[in-house]
Design goal:
Chain lengths: ~110, ~80, ~325
């Protein structure tokens, strides 16, 4: 008969692995989007949003597998940083590309 | 664990395919972003796999530097008319 | 064949592709972006080779600061130079890469010594002799991390010389670069629209970089970290702030700047001189104070490295938009 702690422990183990596999699945989706989308702007969305989600699920899974304070705090910090930098980079790259296209049109015309 | 790590690295290959067959400079910076995020994921998996917390520190540094390098490159790669 | 070979071989493949792209990409800016990606992959390879200090340094310097440095240096160069260099070496490099890969694969698949050592079947204890030596004598060194013990106690002379080399590099750079702004300045006086976003982001990232740098410096005595890694993170913060206009140009005329540049090497030399003249020998720390001395040396060294790297990368640019 399993004690309550054991049940919780194995639940965390299976949930952790499930989240991790889902996270890697989203990574694969992001890669697919990166390769197949027709336009830079759609590719930007594919990468920054999906990659961040994949990493978030991955860190959630890892946090469930290793629930010590230190590692969870570090994982949270890394995920917040990647999320913020993904959002900012999406904006920056999109605006940069718009600007460069305007410059090119300026030069041609 | 190893299979997950390999899967992640294979998606990185997709990222660098985009880097090498890029239509614009922004595409290459995007590929760099994918590679960095993949590297962070790989390092986090490595931390769990080898039960060594130092790889999380390396992942943090990589996350910070990836953010810095995108901002820096966007500023420095502007063409002017 | 062990399943660990799969991520390792993928990393090697990534590395080869990045290296090839960095050398033979059609545009110079593309080649440099690929070189930065190469730095990221090398950091991952250091991680797989169980070298966290090197992985930290590579991620901080190779993936970040080197990219900015190269971009700044390359702006004045004409594109034809890049094309000419490319075609001259293409076939030779391709032949070399193919031969090297074939040799590596042959070694991997057929070498008996690897099979006998059990390497192809899983992990074995490959602790090098140097590591065992360092672990054995670490108790006398004042710190708990073997790499720091070696760098700042057993081989402190080498680290002191490294700091001096950094100083010489900075002086050399200052001879070559003019003090005014970049020579080809066709910038219009129009700020990019996303500057407000970049400035806000820099305000968030820079303190985070400084805190992480401090964390790495403090942990250097008991875990991977140390002065070089912390200093390069601080330099990255300075670069970030400078590029978004939040930090004024670093002026060499300021005496505090020059003092900060030499502080690390100077403090280290002072410690060395004191131990040489009144102590047991050049850079032989007294056992009771060695931990304290190592921390103080690292703090000053971090300051120097941060300022020196910032000067090397962003220098005294007046116009950060061109």
């Amino acid at each position: 008969m399993m004690a309550a702690g054991d049940v919780l422990g194995s639940w965390a183990f299976y949930a952790g692995w499930a989240f991790m596999i889902a996270g890697c699945g989203f990574f694969a989706t992001a890669a697919l989007g990166l390769l197949r989308f027709p336009d830079l702007y759609s590719r930007l969305h594919a990468v920054t949003k999906t990659d961040t989600l994949g990493l978030g699920l991955l860190t959630l899974g890892l946090a469930l597998l290793d629930p010590s304070w230190r590692s969870c705090l570090m994982l949270l910090l890394i995920w917040l940083l990647v999320m913020a930098s993904g959002a900012v980079n999406c904006q920056l790259l999109a605006r940069y590309n718009l600007e460069q296209e305007e410059e090119d049109n300026h030069r041609v015309s | 664990m190893i299979w997950l790590a390999s899967l992640i690295l294979l998606t990185a290959l997709a990222g660098i395919w985009r880097m090498t067959h890029a239509a614009t400079i922004a595409d290459r910076l995007l590929g760099l972003q994918v590679l960095s995020t993949t590297g962070i994921a790989f390092l986090l998996l490595l931390a769990q796999w080898q039960s060594n917390a130092v790889w999380r520190d390396v992942a943090l540094v990589l996350a910070l530097l990836a953010a810095v390098i995108t901002v820096a490159l966007v500023q420095m790669l502007r063409k002017r008319s | 064949m062990s399943p660990e070979l799969l991520p390792d071989l993928t990393l090697i493949l990534l590395l080869l592709i990045m290296a090839w792209g960095a050398l033979y990409a059609p545009q110079r800016s593309d080649a440099m972006t690929l070189f930065i990606a190469f730095g990221v992959v090398v950091a991952l390879i250091w991680a797989r080779l169980d070298a966290p200090d090197l992985a930290l340094a590579e991620a901080a310097i190779g993936a970040g600061l080197t990219g900015v440095l190269l971009m700044h240096a390359a702006r004045a160069l004409p594109d034809e130079l890049h094309r000419r260099n490319r075609t001259a070496t293409y076939w030779g490099a391709l032949a070399f890469a193919v031969v090297a890969t074939l040799m590596f694969l042959a070694h991997l698949l057929t070498d008996d010594s690897l099979l006998n050592a059990g390497l192809l079947d899983g992990e074995t204890d490959m602790t090098p002799r140097l590591r065992s030596l360092a672990d054995a004598t670490m108790g006398d060194s004042g710190v708990e991390h073997p790499v720091t013990a070696v760098l700042l106690n057993f081989r402190a002379w080498d680290t002191l010389l490294e700091l001096l080399v950094l100083l010489f590099a900075l002086s050399g750079l200052r001879q070559l670069f003019p003090r005014e702004s970049a020579p080809d300045d066709h910038a219009t006086s129009r700020w990019p629209e996303s500057l407000a976003l970049m400035a806000a982001w820099a305000r968030v990232l820079a303190p985070l970089l400084v805190v992480t740098g401090g964390y790495l410096l403090w942990r250097g005595s008991s875990a991977p970290g140390g002065a070089f890694q912390a200093g390069s993170l601080l330099a990255a913060a300075a670069v970030m702030l400078r590029l978004t206009g939040l930090l004024p140009p670093l002026r060499w005329s300021s005496v505090w700047l020059r003092l900060a540049v030499v502080a690390g090497a100077l403090f280290f030399l002072t410690v060395a001189a004191i131990t040489g003249i009144w102590g047991e020998g050049w850079l032989t720390y007294p056992a009771a104070y060695s931990g304290l001395l190592i921390i103080s040396i690292e703090i000053f060294a971090t300051l120097s490295i941060a300022i020196t790297l910032s000067l090397l990368v962003i220098g005294e640019w007046e116009d950060l938009r061109s």
